[in-house]
Amino acid sequence: MAQPIQGAQVVSRVSDILRTVSERAPHGISTADVVAQTTLTRPTAHRLLTSLAAEGFIDHDARKSLWYLGPELYLIGSLAAERYDISALAQESLRTLARETGESAFLSARRGDETVCLFREEGSFPIRSFVLTEGIRFPLGVASAGLVLLAHLPSDEAEDYLGRAHLSGRWGAQHSAVPLRERIAETRQTGYAVNPGLLVEGSWGMGAVVFDRADRPAWALSLTGIESRFRPERQPELGRLLLEQAHLITKKIRNEG
Fold first, then answer.
1. Residue limits of the HTH iclR-type domain (predicted)?
2. pTM for this entry
3. Ramachandran area for residue 233 (φ above 0: left; ψ -120 to 50: alpha; else beta)
4. H-type helices in the chain, by residue range?
5. How confident is the model at residue 82, as a pLDDT?
6. What whole-number distance in Å separates Cα of residue 161 and Cα of residue 157?
7. At 62, phi and psi to the nearest 5?
8. 17 and 37 in contact (C-beta within 8 Å)?
9. How far apart (Å, rounded) are the C-alpha atoms in residues 242 and 239?
């Protein structure tokens, strides 16, 4: 039997820490919260955080006892942005969605089996939902961005994911395979996804997919707000606006290729 690759466990643990710290950017996170959100013991988490800080990947504010993303990640990220960043192409669409709907508009990226919220544009409506924040991650199928990306995967890939994801344990019965399949079917029919307050009661969301140059679902635009702003009679109009802006960004991405 082949032996595990030496160091693979360390890489996995470092990845967990970086993702966890990124979810709390720019506010910072304590060692205790890192431990609570990962499978690491406190000594292991502290040792890895300290080592990452020594290399510049993490910053530590000793006065507040909080950890932040470090300057090395910024430098590396600025280089990676040349391939992955579509913020310049999406900014005007986010502003348009926020202006025309009054809701908060978001851009999320697919990263493997997860979505990562990248940018937020506030709308004018004074009551807002704060389910989505920059850096927060959700599994595919969770929240409107994760649902619309999952729905636009090839059917065999979506089924493979549903067979191994087991979302209901953390995210509730409505995220088990059967109700998820129903929402996937609805999303494929309309083109946009609806999250009817499944994460936080009364906080609704809708999403539309943005495709990359290979016609793969890679990003999602979404709107979030309170339930009364997402009544059935308004959903088609919100869906139309999302689909229009998602299609516009997809065209820009393809034209840049």
1. 8-71
2. 0.74
3. alpha
4. 8-23, 31-37, 42-54, 71-84, 87-101, 143-151, 155-165, 168-171, 177-190, 235-256
5. 55
6. 6
7. -65, -30
8. no
9. 5
DSSP code for 2: P
Q: CA 241 to CA 80: how far, in whole Å?
A: 30
Q: b vs e for 228-254, b when ≥16 Cβ sit within 10 Å of the residue's Cβ? A: ebbeeeeeeebbebbbebbbbbbebbe
pLDDT one digit per residue (tens) for the chain, 257 residues: 444 445 788 888 898 899 889 887 778 999 999 999 888 999 999 999 999 999 999 999 999 999 998 888 877 876 666 566 688 899 999 999 999 999 999 999 998 999 999 999 999 987 776 677 888 899 999 999 999 999 999 999 999 999 999 999 999 999 999 999 999 999 999 999 999 999 988 999 999 999 998 999 999 999 999 999 999 999 999 999 999 999 999 999 988 75
Domain boundary among 17, 51, 75: 75
Question: How many helices (H) and strands (E) are present in the chain, helices listed first?
Answer: 10, 8
| Number of domains forming the structure of the chain | 2
Q: Which of 52, 75, 98 is the last residue of a domain?
A: 75
Residue 56 lies in a domain: yes
State the Cα–Cα distance between residues 57 and 42, nearest whole angstrom: 19
- Regarding whether 232 and 113 lie in a shared domain, the answer is yes
What letter does residue 199 receive in the DSSP assignment? S
Tell the burial category of 147 from Cβ atoms under 10 Å away from its Cβ (0-12, 13-18, 19+). buried
Amino acid, res. 68? Y
